[in-house]
Amino acid sequence: MTLAIFRAALLLLLRDRGALLMTLVVPVVFFLIFAEIFATAAGDQLQLRVAIVDEVRSEDSTRLLKALTAVPAVRPVAGVADREAARDLVRRGTADVGLVIRADGEELATANGLAAPPLLLLVDPSRSVTATVLAGQLQRAYFTALPDLAVGRVAELVGTEFTEFTPAQQAEIDAGLAGLREAAGAAEGSRPAGWTFDELLERDDVAGQNAALNNVAYYAGAVAFMFLLFAAAQGALGLLDDQEAGILDRVAAGPGGIAVVTNGRFLFLTLQGLVQASLIFGCAWLVYGVDVPGNFGPWLMITVSSAVLAAGLGLLLVTGCRTRAQAQVLPTVVILIMSAIGGSMVPRFFMPHWLQQVGWVTPNTWALEAYSGVFWRSEPALQLVPICLALAGIGVAALGLSHWFGQRLVRD
Amino acid sequence: MDSEPLLIVRGALRRFGDRTALAGADLAARKGEVLVLLGPNGAGKTTLLRALAGRVRLDAGQIRIGGGTPDDRAVRRRVGFVPQSIALWGRLPVRTNLEILGRLAGLPRQDVAAAVDEALAWSGLAERAADRVDDLSGGMQRRINIAAGTLHRPDLLLLDEPTVGLDPVARESVHRVLASLRDRGMGLILTTHDLPEAEALADRVAVLAGGVVRAADTIPILVGRLFGSDQEVLLMLASEPAPDLRDFLRTTLFSPTNEPRLWVGRLRGGLEQLPGLRSGLVAAGADIDELRVRQPGLHGVFVELTGTVPQQ
What we know:
The structure holds two protein chains of two kinds. Chain A is an alpha/beta fold. Chain A folds into two domains: 17-38 and 212-410, no CATH class; 47-205, 3-Layer(aba) Sandwich (abc type-2 transporter like fold). Chain A has helices at residues 2-14, 17-42, 59-69, 83-92, 128-145, 147-161, 167-183, 214-236, 238-245, 247-252, 257-288, 296-319, 324-342, 353-359, 363-375, 381-410, and strands at 48-54, 74-76, 97-101, 119-123, 201-205. In chain A, helix 8 (214-236) runs antiparallel to helix 15 (363-375). Mean pLDDT of chain A is 81; it is low at 186-194. By secondary structure, chain B is α/β, with parallel strands linked by helices. In chain B, strand 11 and strand 12 form a beta hairpin. The A-B interface holds A 244-247, 249-257, 260, 410-412 and B 16, 47, 50, 53-57, 73, 76-77, 79, 81-90, 101, 104-106, 148-149, 158.
């Protein structure tokens, strides 16, 4: 008898292609995506797009940049004209972080912290970790490419703080440093520094106002959009309840047809999404001080278009399924994958380059970029219009498709 | 009663894959009459009803309701549809359900309240208007289910097994509701497996089998047409008949049914013929469990036209 039930369960699974897909294929796809993301984020494959400007163009700066760009984790953004251009690239998200070897700072060889540091990092606070990663790579490159400077600074420190070198000793040190400089081209690895490397670095946040709160704003957007999608799909499941109760049949026989049902639910889900996102951002404003009131217009524009998209997509995902079991699983899987790739779970700069490009297929990326534009880059509302129109347009198109699929729910 | 047919169905054909649900059904219905669709399972009753409601597209044939097709918006305003299930939001109050469904049926906003009050009054549920649908009894839910299909005062109301699952008392209350709708001039077409219900409600019955309407008329006319002055004989055998007995039964005007031991036939020439029939059957090897004669009625019509015994 036990085997009979086992057989029935097996046959039911084998004959339900949707369930089979969910059970055997989707988990593997899911694993591959998350493995790709987290292997990069937690491993050594992280690749930063760095907007590099060398204002000094000295022998030392050239050696440093050569060593830095040889590191796989650093991918220079091409064609960066000057510091402002680099700042703009970081602000717009085209580059993850910027590096300026500045002309208005100390020299790399003699920096002692008494004036502006020679290296300037241009950082988007929402991607603060990129500065830490780049600083680490810079340190590695510095000791690889400029060991003479590093040891020279140690020698200088010893000479000033502990003992005075005799002229002979000083000559010997200088000769040694010269040898080091010559050998540095092929040198690998770093040597311990006797001073703080951070003295060479200065960090400049390129965000707009309220930069310190940008991380909260990022996650407010990320979480809000992901839950807009989840709530819309869950709400759209009500269509199936209505179908099972016969309500769809009754209404579809009326003058409005099935379109009335899908349109009505679309409006409801859009409003539900708007309220949901308002609560999340309201909380971000009240608890963390994210300046929602100061950016209310653009925020509303993005949130309404995101809610429209979520409502349309939720309806499409549910009406596109043939069984309730599919409708309960498929939207969840699709939304989780979109959220993972689109940056709702892990910031996209943690992902390999190809996955970042794939992310643009997801509406999550568009919405998060739009929220970034408002809260981090203080972009004018007009610049957000194309993204908002695209989001809303896709939502309306999805509604149109769900009308078509919805007919299947009531037609024999 | 309006003599012009409100509904005309000609040659309705509908296939689902290899299965033919409607095989050229013809039907007509008038305003102010109750037409009951009868037939065994798979005869095409529900498919025909759903086609009338525009929920099933025909592969061939046509349906005209008041001069239009079921897909016409204007026609949909003249038709009400009551699904077999309780097509209501169970967690919402009765009144709220009716208000929403009234709007969805095309009622102008300003007319909804009056229509809901009226529906609550004739369905006898005015006092339960504020209760959740889930809290009502099965009979009350059925009445509200019907009321929800009539809010826009349709000329034609389509009901799919409106009393299925109800006890006799609740069923009677639904019958009263349906009769009152008929008295208001509404045309009703309903499906049922319950012959006493059909006899109680129907002005006319349409008997379907194999996807076609075998006959449609009043019950007395159908009985007269099929039986004349003959009486109906029910023969219940103790076991399934052997092939020889089967052949004999067919030659003596008995017809098989879907119950192998039950055969129906007709008795010509009055009750005095019965002993002769019995002895003939016994001589042919029949082990008779029961041999019963009765005045032919809808049961006989059903068996004659469909070759099956109706579900009890």
